[in-house]
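Hi team,

Filling in the usual template for the complex we talked about on Friday. All components are listed, including any nucleic acid strands or ligand strings, so the model treats them as one assembly.

SUBMITTER: L.P.
PURPOSE: interface mapping
COMPONENTS: two
RESIDUES: 647
SEQUENCES:
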Amino acid sequence: MPPLKRLSVAGVELDVLTVGAGPPLVLLHGFGPVGPEAPFVDRLGRHAEIIAPTHPGFGHSTRPPDFDTVYDLVHLYGALLEQLPHERVTLLGLSFGGWLAAELAVACRHRIDKLILVDALGIKVSGPETPDILDVFNTSPAEVRRRAWHDPARSAPDFDEMADDALVAHARSRDALCLYAWHPYMYTPQLRRWLGTIRVPSLVLWGASDGIVTPDYGRAYARLIPGARFELIADAGHHPEIERPDAFVERVVAFLKE
Amino acid sequence: MQAWYLNENPYPFVPQHVLDGADSVRGSLPNKYCDPKVAADLFEEALDEYLLCDDLGINVVSNEHHAGINCLFGAAPLILGVLARQTRNVRILSLGTLITVRKDPVRIAEEYAMADVMCRGRLEIGFVKSGGSEMASGNANPIGIVDRFWEAIDLILKTLTHREGPFSWEGKYFTHRHVNIWPGPWQQPHPPLWAATGDPTTSAELGRRGIVNVMVFRSIEETLKAWAAYRQARAEAGLPAPGPDRFGHTAFVYTGDTDEEGMTVGSKLLWFLNTGLKSAPQYGKFLPGALKPELAPGLYRTKPRPGQPLAARPAAALMGLTAEQAIAKGLMFAGNPDTVYRQIMEHREKVGPYEHLVLASRSGFMTHDEATRGLRRFSKDVLPRLKEL
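RESULT (copied from the run log):
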């Protein structure tokens, strides 16, 4: 199992999973860090060098005091892109990490050659009375579970089976997500305007059964990025990389080869 | 000792099948179940009880909760304004405006200063950290509450005490570049301060600051721990040991002519615990930051493993208590006047002397008449003995 590397980026100690070989791909995770044991990591690693940092405070990672906004995360990863030995990377963001990837694609375009957003958060699409993104904090855990997965019984984590350590990491990730994204809830009001400045080939991938953010939100996201392509992954909810790892990797690899 | 009357002004008249079917009686229950005409009667009764207390020599407490059957006082400053004008004698404790929810502490200080002037210096200011469903109804991040709490207090105190024209505050959570309230408070440098917490870390900081630490429905064990932390923090800071006037306790209190009456009517107060606390998991144990991540195994697993610590918030331990259990835990004092006095003395023996007893003496389906009878009996036959302490 590949070890986590500790990288010092702009004074922040960052846990980074580095696995696989091929063109560099920076992967920004969603509600929880990406573990080396996830089947999609191994499969994607056959086609790309995955560089997957853990957002400070998520999982078992540390978070500096006063590092507590999406602004901090975007600048941290901007600094990481500058620090990596690669001139340009593919940037892939899952869910919450999709928000960060979209921000970076706007702010650090000179370091990015392709952008992949997967069930990404980060923008406001509908009117004031329509929440685009399910409120995962103010909604019952049972309903969040039902809406996050195409097949919750098969795919959702079984808390009874998880080790103490994994459950603590899960709780830390949830607290960290709340810290960063409570308000405005999971989006930057200004980001929508700036998506039009993205100039790299972009793929917007979406789980067809996502009930956290619907495919229609994903289509709207894709329309705001010039030339972006929108694709659905069937039989997957908010985490297609976990529910359909083969289909997910196949779409990503096809896009990387274009 | 001093007595303080608290009526949270609950709205118990929601059909039981609605309450049974709802996952929470706070935060998410539709307000179509609250008849404003009935609510108007309840406001009037509660305010009349406060005015009665003004005559009886029982201080009054106004509080605030949102969007639930447990409390119709959604805006503490409004009630405070009424009490500041309509009472004439007793002291008024605001316990309190939700300072971790409100966006601008300067505005809170402004309200408190006005109320203190209107009542000519009878205001006491209480701080609560809040949490639970209040975070959803107030759109307030449940992470960072403690830091926000202290910064809000610092800014409120600076606002209340600053006399020399505008000052600027650019803190972590609050920014207000031009702070200058008119009038400042009647009491100088500021009204007495309270805070409600059973968290020893917070109690320790209250100790260093000399703020009154009031327990709200906390067990004997929790009270002992919190007040020990308070005393220890003062000792470590080289400050004088706190007197009983730095401590308060909140309990359900009902004084009847007989023990039987006290228990029968007093038991109605437990509605607050058994119905009014019902809260959905996302507002309780699953609220981010509500429990330390180390407790996650007990929180997430449906089948606990041996030796796994129980992950529950303090409120969870209160639901389903009988009157006898509540009395044994010092959460309730009920019976005839002698019995109530004895129970209070026994509780003080266990937790140490405290100056302030907050009487939660109306809740649930207890009627206005029952509440006022209990208050009159308490003031006539219990309070004089407490005042001698």
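MY TAKE: The longest helix of chain A spans residues 164-181. Chain A has a mean pLDDT of 97.

Thanks, L.
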